[in-house]
């Protein structure tokens, strides 16, 4: 997967992972992928809903050593 930017939002509580994701998405071109790393368990539902509401595509998410990783393709 060709990632354009990686956002480190580990240690941040809601709503900061979403706030940082919105800001980082402005630095990514349409069709490019933003990879987000967070430790906020609420991000599972938050980022999924945010991507859908913005028309972006959540390509994949996984959890590794208590870090949630998301790959979102910008619409």
From TrEMBL:
Pfam families reported for this sequence: TusA
Domain of life, source organism: Bacteria
Ranges where the UPF0033 domain occurs: 7-31
Membership in a protein family: Belongs to the sulfur carrier protein TusA family.
Protein's recorded name: Sulfurtransferase TusA family protein
Protein source organism: Halobacillus yeomjeoni
């Amino acid at each position: 997967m060709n990632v354009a930017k990686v956002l480190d939002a580990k240690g941040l509580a809601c709503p900061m992972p979403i706030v940082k994701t919105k800001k980082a998405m402005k630095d990514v071109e349409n069709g490019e992928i933003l990879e987000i790393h967070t430790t906020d368990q609420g991000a599972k539902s938050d980022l999924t809903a945010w991507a859908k509401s913005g028309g972006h595509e959540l390509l994949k998410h996984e959890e590794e050593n208590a870090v949630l990783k998301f790959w979102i393709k910008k619409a």
